[in-house]
Fold each of these.
Amino acid sequence: MPEDSERVEEHVPSPLVVEEKEKSDTKQMSSWKEPSIKEVPLPAYTDNEALSTEKIGPLEDAEEIVTHVIHVDDDPSLSPWTFRMFFIGIGLSAFGAVLQEIMYFKPQVVFVSVMFLTVLAQAMGTFMAAFLPKGGAIGRFLNPFPWNRKEHTAAVLMASAASVSALSTEALSVQKLWYGGYPNQVAGIFITLSSQLLGYGVAGMMRGVLVYPTSMLWPANLPITSVMETLHKPKAETRKRFKVFWIVFAAIFCWEWFPEYIFPLLSAVSIFCLADQNNAVFTNLFGGSQGNEGMGFLSVCFDWNYIAGFGSPLWMPLQTLTNSFIGYLGCVLLSMALYYGNIWRAQDFPFMSQLLYDGSSNSTNYVPYNETAIMNADFTVNNTMVDQMGTPYLTATYVNYLIVSNAGMTATIIHMLLWNYKEVKQGWAWMTMANMKMLLRPSTYMFWHQSGSRTEEEKEKIRQDPSIDPHYKLMLDYDEVPSTWYFCIFAVSWIVALVCLYVMKSTLPWWGFVIATLFLFVFMVFFGAQNGITGFGYNLQSIFQMLAGYMFPGRPLANMYFTTYTYNGLSQGFLLARDLKLAQQNKLSPKATFTTQVIGCVMGALLNYVMMISIVQNQAPILESAEGTNIWSGAQIQQFNTLAIAWSIAPRMFSFGAIYEWVTAAFLIGFLMPLPFYIMHRFFPRQKIWPYFNTAIIIWYCGELFVGLNASITSYYIIGYFGQFYLRRYRPQWFVKWNYLISAALDGGTQVMVFLATFAVFGGSGKAVPFPTWAGNLANNFDRCKYNANG
């Protein structure tokens, strides 16, 4: 990870030789006044087709990526403020929010992706521009000019902010189904709104750290911005790129029907399991086509939906790929050693599982722990019953995940302090005495009087700052959103949340909510910066649940609401910071970005809540059942409740002297892990190998393979190294022109196929249509590994 903004080359994903950078001398544009198109001077690298003849050296640092892959140009005459933008943005926001909440209560969860929204918005915008009336006053209002990139970006940002499932709806569902209901509907609405907006307010106040610097690349945005450029540049400039995008899009759409539906063997080809189909060790090590089957080591996957399920390897930075690969190998060794060494009675429980197990389990009979038997009538844990039933057990692979997650959390903090102290310090720069006094002034909260305009001196200071993203410098003539706007969102959300937590009888004390807020601020700096630089998103849910278990023992409801305002607040903050960067790369004005994101957040939260209420009221018996149906399932909320109960007895399971004491000791170990690499760097500063290692990423990936389908890992790294190492080093022109565009086409085509298949054949509409069984489609045994029905 990067040390500081002046040494980007040491942490951006490539060990390549630096070539002289070509700088853009783009003139600053005046603010938009009329919705008319005009020509503007463009910098180098604005003609995509010209890249085929322009010599480009290996791309070394973040600035070279953002100025070669994304063109540093802007047309300030383009306006996002149109009827089309609001119509499409609000429509897609409603679609995404409702769909995501419905899918949360389905047996198969499908996530609405930004790439999917980008493709939908483009289709709708192009259609409206072609068929809405253009003449007269009505035409000028409905269809004033051709569908443009800024309208497209604004609509996508609005829909992206809405297309999530608020974690508060999990807690509210659990409270309704298992904890006596929620006594106040209004409080439930405002808990959902406040939990979604709280993280946004914090991320907005920290955008100077998380968004503006060049080093904050947010790599997941690169394919989307590449597609935006291709779709909205003149066709004469991008004809070939446009054609290739849609060819790849259509090809992957057609191909995905085979590994996803017709020929599932293609999703997990394991030579070892094909060679020996009765070997349980081979299943644990090489299997990975079924949930919790095995680690998928050396399996080959031809299904892009699984390969890029948590992010395309083509945009994942090389440094992140390398560190995660080291951790992945460590995970294979650790998991096999723990299980076959029978550590923590590992062989008495499944190789992979996230459930709690009773101590009476053995290698042939896994007995789930009866969680309801240890609950009091007031929904607190009965310690006497826990004594009688005994402490529950976990699988060794899950304990390993908890250990490395905790160690990775503290390792991240130390790593950022050692290598990125400048960024971390900047994250708290706003906490000055002058700013604290300003918060006491009534005028601070009169945000409607604040224009956000800068003086020429302020603009020039930013232009001269080498750490600031060139794309942000190009937008300095747009009025900025004052930080007090974000502070007002945070302050109102905080007050509303505190009141609602008491009205809802959450059992979370006021001081617990204050601590949650402090965690939100601290972790937003460390983990937000790590996410922006490396593209690696750290899953902190289990960590916050464990911390809540120690702070609020015996209170599962308090555990869930504490997690809602920490983990969910951070996740929402990261998503909105990523989208702020997307707006910056596409030159959408800050106030348009702020408006669309707030509308999206509010719409998404309200529709999440409405759909949750409807589903829980009408499907309660099914959601409470263990098996569910092929239409509705309560698996997600049941798991959230189970973990909350488990962490409520955390002191019995994880304290020093308990069976899983290493889970707690890992916090201390994580503090030490980054030190050897930093010490070696101080002794040998000329060697770039030491800062290249990111111990936080390595450690976390040492527990990566504890759940899910793992057969795609080998293919993931092969494709990732092909793009980020081979193309970027030896074919930089191809890398600039095709890497992110093809990644976007693969993502888009796959996500459209999965979305359609979910409702057509996978049971999303209520009726599943399974493909007939044949040699390439054996139920529960796609990769031919030994299938263990008990596991």
Amino acid sequence: MTGPGTTRVENPRGPMHAGYGDLYNVNVTVGGPQEPSVRSPRRIADDQLRWLRQRFVDPEGMGAARRLLAEHGTVILYGEPGSGRTAAARVLLYELPRETGVFRELLPGDEEETPLTDPALVGAGDRLLLDLAEATGTRWTKNRRDLSSLREAVHEQQAHLVVVMPYDDGLESDLQFLRADLARPPAEEVLRRHLRLHGVPHDAFLQPAPAMAEFLGEQRTVAEVADFADRVRRARAADPGVGFARWCEQARDARKTRRKEVARLVAERSEASQRALLFATAMLHGAHADVIHRATDVLLHLPGGPREEGPSLACKDLAERLEEIHASTGTDGHVQFKELDYDDAVRVHFWNHMPHLRPLFSSWTARSTELDDPHLTPGLREELVHRLADQYLRTHQWQELTALAHEWGAGARSQARAWAAIHALSRGLEHQRYGADFRQLVYAWCRDKQLTGQLAYVLLRVCTDVIAPTHPDQAMVRLHHLARREHAATHALDALCALVATSSRLRRRALDRVTRRSSAPAADARLFLRICDPVPLTEPGGAPRALVDEGYVRECVSLGWLVVFRHLPRLDWQPYAERWLHLASDSASDDRRDLLLDLLVNGAGGDGTHFAVLYAVARAAEPTTSGGPARGAATTDRLLQKISAAQGLRPPAASSRSATPGGTTP
């Protein structure tokens, strides 16, 4: 079973942003006046899983897998390649309640990933996928040994884990009770499900379709069946009147002879204008004729491109020129080739047989995304870039694609060019073979790359829209580096805070990064103030206990406040300290109030000056306490008692408010 073909990145017309960075001496421009809209990574992940569930047909053994997951919190799936085992794993996790925790894929062995044996890897209610279907013998053996520790953490956090094990490999006897064997679902049922979702009428299935029977007569993977259904959909869209049997014939034949036909056509159409139109139609297949006409003209006039000769009035009209390349314009004005998948064969031919023109094709793609035409929709721009990126990835030129994305992002002077960079990187990040390479590259850019043009905005969007839905830990690390480098704007910090708000485990890890593992204390002190919000720290949500009840988290918080007091001016941290004091005043229990105050006092590090300023801030916060000034004053008195105890002094009387600790007047 295949998943959605792309991760949708939203708001392509939104304002551009790239932050500033004192730490790395980065000089970045901001391309829009408003903060960009960023979708929740959790919502993106749920949308992708919902898309998959709608198209999923239960394989034999799925019921047993559901039962094992419900009873033990863990199930190990076994099935042959092409049986849809990875899709089944995702569906199992999607069907679980989602009150707490997040869906995420575990990547054991990656240098940024927490080891499977670390209990901190699992958050309360998390839905975890450990896909080891392609694991080698050594890797499978290592991860299999770690499963016991991982399962224990999953049980303690009331989380769920689905493991996809390699085909034809072993499993210890003590794990056999967790194994569910999956058999490939009936191909015809899979095809019918996909066609129904594509809007093919049920009556169509009742018609004889020899091509469909021929296709299904061979053993097909679930992915092959889904691909065939998509070709039927496109055949129906191109020629709805010929009937189901003919659509199936076109779907069957689409991959067999197209490339030879295209090779002959290109050889016969040797004029520059013909070949330019052929390439533009393939890259913008389905676009309005106006767009294809303008894009063809762009290609003909690019430096180093082909040249069209003769006055325009003497040229053939667009309809005649399209007929020459086996394309036509529909009643809605949109252009398509007459044969199914002809556009894909044209793209492959030009890329394979004209390698010297690849830089030209890339420049043309960028220019075409910037055309000012009402028919050039955001979705069409995205599809155009994806079609170019697919050629780079198909020919194993992933590094060349990253260089192109960097060129577009770092030199972007328009929103369209920045979004072209986003779409190019997104395609690479989604690629099964090169996705890990792209994630590592994004990490290096977020940490060290000079963020010129719109590159910071490009990185922000791929982190939140593409990486975070399935690999939130890696997205958090990358957003942390971006947020460190911001100066005037806070878009990356806002995205980081939104991400850690989805999971207590992520907030714990973020606190660890900005306090215990910080290499830039002053920069991280500002991030700490936002990440260390006292409300989510003190509310357990669906977890067994609140974060602030963990000793390790309390140590991080105290250390964070110490760095804040040492490195930031009072005006920067006072509003955040007042929020802590107000929450302490509103606490229903004295223990919770005392804990919040203790963290602030411990954060002062025994420094009399820090104590004095903290006390002055508490006095200033009294009038704005929600329970009234008297309640605020009681909190201040309690704070003063704790400060005095920390200094080894006798606690003052509650009414003694004339001086601050250490004898300093506020």
